[in-house]
Specification:
The chain has 19 helices and no strands. By secondary structure, the chain is mainly alpha-helical. It folds into two domains: about 200 residues, no CATH class; about 120 residues, no CATH class.
Length: about 400
């Protein structure tokens, strides 16, 4: 069952941040170490860890509720006809046999013993990656060391890493078992309804008869665990590269199909009449939309002039500078993400007015960036024509 595999793979990967990944993040702190500690405001209220945890939990619950609501919308069952109670009873007998207590955990064990240990090995203290992060030495150089030497180096940073990794496994595995046990009842219930709709009463009786036999009982106990059998998982993984290759091979065809589609309109393309209609639909002041349109047009004009000059004088320099700008922006974004330890960075704590202002400016910035990119492409094409250079 691919859905089970996806859930359990995600769950297995999610184990890591609770232990090894959190430990790794602690070791990856050279950037954080050079950041000066914020000056505490003596007049500010003391930090309440319980309140912060409750707030984080409530926020996460809200996001999960929204995700569930989206899934419910995608898989709407409200229009389905009622299920015959007799068939549902037979189907519940079927799913009780197919999902006995502990069957999901048994499936995870096929992954847990191998996948979790592999992840711990790849990201643990003795891995090439972690030793590279800790020492600053290139991972290719570390890969040349034998395992005994790597272990000695890792022990210098964390003499208790083995005990720590064992403790992670000891603490996490029971928690995962508990969570997986909680999943079984709703899975049985949902699967029973699906079986009751898919099979007739006579067919369900036949299925239950088979599951009651020794062979059927063995099948019922093993069928779910077999979904995560190493041979199954390896076959699925090996099937991925051909899939990606198909997309790469068909990229030109897909690109042509997308290019044939008309471009979407931007706010700058709207005339006053269209803006008035848009303002009425959105129930906002038309002046606001006009200001946004004017900002867009102004930014576009400036971008066209600047990029044409750059393209004519030095198209290569433009490409280098643009790449540098992207790298700088990415680094800035990472710095911002790393700095979000102050509640002031949490947009949930901003006033409605401040949030609206920031989002409006961000939208204008995104629109202007897109316009600048389009203008740059046009400028490069014009420059190539004037200098009789081939278009790339």
């Amino acid at each position: 069952m691919p859905s089970f595999q996806s859930i359990l793979l995600a769950g297995a990967a999610a184990m890591l941040p609770l232990g090894a990944s959190a430990h790794a993040a602690q070791k990856e702190a050279p950037v954080a170490e050079v950041v000066a500690a914020p000056v505490e405001d003596e007049t500010a209220a003391p930090y309440d860890s319980e309140a912060a945890a409750a707030e984080a939990k409530a926020k996460m619950q809200k996001e999960m509720d929204e995700a569930i609501a989206l899934v419910e919308k995608m898989f709407d069952t409200s229009s389905l006809p009622p299920i015959d109670p007799a068939r549902l009873t037979l189907a519940e007998q079927t799913t009780a046999a197919l999902i006995p207590a502990g069957s999901i955990e048994k499936m995870v064990d096929n992954l847990y013993g191998k996948m979790f240990k592999t992840i711990m090995g790849e990201f643990g203290g003795q891995s090439d990656l972690m030793l590279s992060i800790q020492t600053g030495v290139e991972s290719e150089q570390i890969a040349k060391l034998d395992e005994a030497t790597k272990a000695k180096v890792a022990d210098m940073f964390d003499p208790h890493r083995k005990e720590r990794e064992d403790q992670i496994t000891k603490v996490i595995k029971p928690l995962i078992s508990e969570v997986l046990g909680d999943m079984e009842p709703p899975m049985r219930s949902g699967l029973a309804k699906a079986y009751a709709r898919k099979f007739t009463g006579a067919q369900l009786t036949d299925i239950n008869g088979f599951l009651a036999t020794p062979t059927g009982t063995l099948y019922a106990n093993e069928w779910m665990a077999l979904q995560a059998d190493p041979e199954v998982m390896l076959a699925v993984i090996k099937a991925v590269p051909p899939l990606i290759t198909k997309f790469i091979d068909r990229a030109p065809e897909l690109e042509k199909d997308f290019k044939d589609l008309p471009k979407e309109k931007q706010l700058s393309d709207f005339d006053d009449k269209e803006l008035a209609k848009l303002a009425k639909l959105m129930k906002v002041d038309v002046k606001l939309l006009k200001e946004q349109r004017d900002q867009w047009n102004s930014a576009t004009d400036d971008a066209v002039e600047a990029t044409e000059a750059v393209a004519v004088e030095a198209a290569d320099d433009y490409a280098v500078d643009a790449a540098a700008d992207v790298a700088t922006a990415a680094a800035a974004a990472e710095a911002v993400d790393a700095a979000v330890v102050d509640p002031a960075y949490d947009r949930g704590n901003w006033s409605a007015a401040d949030l609206k202002r920031v989002e409006e400016l961000e939208t204008a910035y995104e629109n202007a960036s897109l316009a600048a990119q389009q203008a740059a492409e046009e400028a490069e094409a014009n420059a190539s024509k004037r200098s009789k250079l081939p278009n790339n």
